[in-house]
Hints:
Layout: E1 2-7, E2 10-12, E3 18-26, E4 33-39, E5 46-51, E6 58-60, E7 68-73, E8 78-83, E9 92-99, H1 102-106, E10 112-113, E11 117-121
Parallel strand pairs: 2-11
Antiparallel strand pairs: 1-3, 3-8, 4-5, 4-9, 5-6, 7-8, 9-10, 9-11
Amino acid sequence: QVQLVESGGGLVQPGGSLRLSCAASGRTSSGVAMGWSRQAPGKEREFVAAISWSGNTIYYADSVKGRFTISRDNANNTVWLQMNSLKPEDTAVYYCAVGLTVLTIRAGGVQSWGQGTQVTVSS
């Protein structure tokens, strides 16, 4: 089982930026994709972004395209989510995820979830 620990959440004003980090440990294995989903109060968890092991395949939700950037460092088993031009509707708990491919993560086929980190966008 892979353990995932997120960090970097917080309170930010609209238009601001945050960078989320996710460190993987435990029975990590090469070749897996990693990604992020989020869940706002009263809403279902939704896909945000995913990146393949090589970094050559990346998917974003339409709502974050052009504002969020996902990246990873396989040597350190870490994935990041750089969030720019944040909006109040980005407020949610953000969860790190591991899956077989970026498509399976996008479809909700996640092998492991982190505990989540709160992001609040408010003036």
